[in-house]
Structure formats: structure tokens, C-alpha cells
């Protein structure tokens, strides 16, 4: 995980002291040569060698990679969201979606977004509040759809009664639930283009989810 800021150190001073924090966006492409000339290769090697990698956790992807300038793109923004691009590439190359990945590994599938919250955490703990906020965000993004028990969504597992796992995931047929499965369909067929960004992608998900809600409400 690349950082947004490099903790710059100097080898001929106290290497344990961070002299300054430099945006990584100012150290690559055409700016790389000048950065090496000004600061010295040894200092950059020391700084990068001592830099801690980003924690593998939610909402911790480098911001500069979410809005990476690409001047050669023939688009209005001339930038791209690497995080969203990586996700789409994984899906297009056959990487299973979250629930299907769990099923194929023999793990229990999740049937609601609240299943992401660790029940062992105290209700007043910061970690619990953070997880609850993430669940709230998922609800806002993914919306709802009407359960359809006629749609079998996986062949990797069966229900406890050996019946196929269907679209309703244990909910009553026809009930309006969060788009836990519908998201897979929307994301799988999303087309990537030069103007792609996470914001545009989420707007598209919102729009399609809204159509699903309207279409199934009558």
C-alpha cells in the first residue's frame, strides 16, 4: 500500500527524525528526476526503506491513486481511479464476488450487511461504530431489490436443507431487501472507459438500483 505522504529522512542527520512529509504525487513521472537531484538518492532510499506500508483495511487506499492524472487520455477529466479499475479488472478476469468467494472456500455466506459487524465488539467501542458507519454507507450505495426465489445464484454450496441457494438468501420471496446480490450483476457488466472514476461508478449503481426499486414496487 503506497502512502499519500513520504516521511522524508536524511542519512547524514538523525535518520530517526522525519524532516518533512512530501506528497508522493510530487515525486514520480516528470518530477522524479528533480526530486532525486534535490534530495539525493541515498535520502530517498532511506526514507522509502523506513516508510511503513499502509494498513490493509477499508477506506485506506491512497487518495492520489483514486484521482490519478492521465494527460494522454482523451476525456474531460484526464484522470482515472486505480482502485475502482483494479476491482473491475478482477471481476472481468473471473475473480468471484465476496459471497461467492466465501461459498467456494466452504465459508458461511452473509445474508445482510449487518453481518459485517463483529458482534464481539462492545456497542460503544470505536471499532464497532466504524463498522456500523461502513454498513450505513453500503446501504446508501447499494439500495434494495425484490427477492426472487426462482433465481439460483450459486452452485458452490447448498442450503442446510440441501435446497439451492437462491436470490432471496433466506428472506421471504418477494420481500424488498438490500442489494446484496444485485450488486454483483451491476458491477460485472460495468464497462470501463477513459473517464471512469469511483464517483461516476457509484452514480451509475445508484441510478440502476433506483430503476430496480421502481420497477418492482408495483
Q: State the helicity in percent bands.
A: 25-40%
**Beta-strand proportion:** 5-15%
Low-confidence stretches: 179-218
Order of helices and strands: EEHHHEEHHHEEHH
Provide the gyration radius in Å.
Answer: 23 Å
Backbone shape? elongated
Largest sheet: 2 strands, antiparallel
How would you sum up this structure, described in words?
The longest helix has 18 residues, at 198-215. 38% of the residues lie in helices and 8% in strands. Residues 179-218 have low confidence and may be disordered. It has helices at residues 32-39, 41-50, 63-66, 82-92, 98-104, 126-142, 182-188, 198-215; strands at residues 5-8, 20-23, 68-69, 79-80, 144-146, 176-178. The chain starts with a strand and ends with a helix. The protein is built from eight helices and six strands. It has 218 residues and is mostly helical. The chain folds into two domains: 1-56, no CATH class; 62-215, no CATH class.
Main attributes?
single chain; 218 residues; mainly alpha; 2 domains; two-stranded antiparallel ribbon; 8 helices; elongated; disordered C terminus
Outline:
By secondary structure, the protein is mainly alpha-helical.
Write the layout of secondary structure elements.
Layout: E1 5-8, E2 20-23, H1 32-39, H2 41-50, H3 63-66, E3 68-69, E4 79-80, H4 82-92, H5 98-104, H6 126-142, E5 144-146, E6 176-178, H7 182-188, H8 198-215
Antiparallel strand pairs: 1-2, 3-4, 5-6
Amino acid at each position: 500500500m503506497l502512502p499519500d505522504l513520504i516521511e522524508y529522512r536524511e542519512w547524514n542527520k538523525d535518520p530517526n527524525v522525519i524532516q518533512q512529509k512530501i506528497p508522493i504525487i510530487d515525486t514520480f513521472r516528470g518530477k522524479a528526476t528533480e526530486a532525486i537531484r534535490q534530495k539525493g538518492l541515498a535520502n530517498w532510499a532511506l526514507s522509502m526503506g523506513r516508510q511503513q506500508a499502509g494498513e490493509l483495511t477499508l477506506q485506506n487506499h491512497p487518495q492520489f491513486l483514486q484521482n490519478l492524472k492521465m494527460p494522454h487520455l482523451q476525456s474531460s477529466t484526464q484522470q482515472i481511479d486505480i482502485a475502482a479499475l483494479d476491482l473491475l479488472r478482477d471481476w472481468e478476469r473471473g475473480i468471484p464476488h465476496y459471497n461467492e468467494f466465501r461459498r467456494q472456500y466452504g465459508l458461511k455466506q452473509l445474508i445482510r450487511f449487518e453481518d459485517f459487524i463483529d458482534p464481539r465488539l462492545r456497542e460503544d467501542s470505536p471499532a464497532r461504530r466504524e463498522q456500523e458507519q461502513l454498513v450505513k454507507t453500503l446501504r446508501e450505495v447499494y439500495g434494495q431489490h425484490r427477492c426472487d426465489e426462482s433465481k439460483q445464484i450459486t452452485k458452490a454450496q447448498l442450503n442446510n436443507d440441501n435446497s439451492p441457494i437462491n436470490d432471496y438468501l433466506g428472506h421471504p420471496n418477494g420481500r424488498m431487501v438490500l442489494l446484496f446480490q444485485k450488486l454483483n450483476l451491476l458491477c460485472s457488466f460495468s464497462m470501463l472507459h477513459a473517464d471512469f472514476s469511483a464517483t461516476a461508478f457509484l452514480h451509475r449503481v445508484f441510478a440502476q438500483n433506483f430503476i430496480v426499486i421502481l420497477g418492482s414496487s408495483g
